[in-house]
Design brief:
Chain B: Pfam families: zf-HC2. The complex is a heterodimer of chains A (187) and B (207). Chain A has 187 residues and is mainly α. In chain A, 79% of the residues lie in helices and 0% in strands. The chains are: A mainly alpha (187), B alpha/beta (207).
Chain lengths: 187, 207
């Protein structure tokens, strides 16, 4: 897939926007998911994810083609989300509840293999609780945890995306994991 | 109280970044210490929970929205891509444009009166007359003028963008053709070209 992406990027550099459409298709879900987990709000997540793709397009010439495109793209998206979180007002946690219900709406649209209503509801409640706890994490732990466990990236990639030494990434993941454990141990 | 080091080992294990010796120490400790085993299980449960939330999908119109917000693409690129995706159509339309161009330019150039050169043809004010009792040999072509046939023409008659009068005494041995509209004219040109092509192939045989 990386090969296809590299080819498409060369076309994009020549100015071909349709080729960029294919790149967006490949990465839209992971970028959107990253933004949603960071911000906890569907609209903001869509806004930031779109912004990330637009910035990547505008700055595509500065992208080093020897690197992984996804790493670069995730870095743009993560930085945008962190900026957005910093600009937010302190009533942020009120938003988180709204985000939870939005998440619930979206999960209910995902078809399940075992359509047992009770079990489904239970797992929805659990996912809602988990999302809430992720959103309570300080921004520096949150980005590391989301990249590690939701995007399932390697520690090396995370350190490239966040532009931090590997050791720092590890510490942040450890602290984030510990904080989540404290909150979720009785769920 | 267990050493802080054990918690550190748990994290190393969860990062999948632990060497065998340390893993051994961790395993032995977890078997003997219920408190640490509980913490370790809670950590693993937490990770499973977080991972279980990872399937949110972007809205259906996401890509279209991104593309609509991009700065405008250069025309050149659009053309290049179009030509690439429809090579046959591109070639055909280019051919068509050139064809039409040349056809119309010849049509417009041909506005002047002209007549094929033959003996016995009389020309008066854009009117070509085949006088009574005279015989014209060969094909007669009149452009942008009238043709009055009072005598005899031994051959075909073609009138382009004009009129012809065939008097009762007049006689044409070949075919008579009148071309007045541009499409008639194109048709005529195509037939003529085809005829020429056929002639080229016919000649070597007859010679």
């Amino acid at each position: 897939m990386e090969a296809i992406v590299k080819k498409r990027i060369k076309q994009v550099i020549k100015g071909d926007q349709d080729a960029y459409g294919e790149i967006v298709e490949i990465y839209k879900n992971s970028v959107y998911q990253l933004c949603f987990r960071m911000l906890g709000n569907r609209h903001e997540a869509e806004d930031m994810a779109q912004e990330a793709f637009i910035r990547a397009f505008v700055n595509i010439k500065s992208f080093n083609q020897n690197l992984k495109f996804s790493t670069w793209l995730f870095r743009i998206a993560t930085n945008l989300c962190i900026d957005r979180m910093r600009k937010k007002k302190p009533d942020y946690y009120l938003d988180a509840d709204v985000a939870g219900t939005e998440g619930l709406n979206m999960y209910s649209q995902i078809p399940s293999d075992t359509p047992l209503p009770e079990k489904e509801l239970e797992s929805l409640e659990l996912q809602e609780a988990v999302q809430k706890e992720i959103l309570k994490l300080p921004e520096k732990y949150r980005s590391a945890i989301v990249l590690k466990y939701i995007e399932e990236l390697s520690l090396n990639e995370i350190s490239e995306i966040l532009d931090l030494p590997l050791g720092t990434v590890k510490t942040r993941i450890h602290r984030g994991r510990e904080a989540l454990r404290q909150q979720l141990r009785y769920v | 109280m267990c050493p802080e080091q054990i918690i550190e080992l748990m994290h190393e294990y969860l990062d999948e970044d632990i060497d065998q010796d340390k893993e051994q120490i961790l395993r032995e400790h977890l078997q003997s210490c219920n408190e640490c085993a509980l913490i370790f299980n809670e950590l693993k449960k937490t990770i499973a929970f977080v991972k279980s939330t990872s399937h949110v999908q972007a809205p259906a119109d996401f890509t279209a929205n991104v593309l609509s917000r991009l700065p405008k693409e250069k025309k050149k690129v659009w053309m290049q891509r179009w030509v690439k995706t429809h090579p046959l159509l591109a070639a055909a339309s280019l051919f068509f444009i050139l064809m039409m161009g040349s056809v119309f330019s010849t049509w417009n150039q041909d506005r002047e009166f002209s007549v094929s050169k033959q003996k016995n043809l009389v020309v008066k004010n854009n009117t070509v007359i085949v006088p009574k009792g005279e015989t014209v040999k060969g094909n007669v072509i009149v452009r942008n003028g009238k043709l009055k046939i009072e005598g005899e023409i031994q051959g075909d008659v073609t009138v382009i963008n004009g009129e012809k009068y065939l008097a009762s005494a007049g006689h044409v041995t070949g075919q008579i053709e009148e071309v007045n509209e541009v499409f008639d004219w194109i048709w005529y040109h195509m037939k003529k070209t085809a005829q020429e092509v056929v002639d080229i192939f016919d000649h070597p045989k007859t010679e």
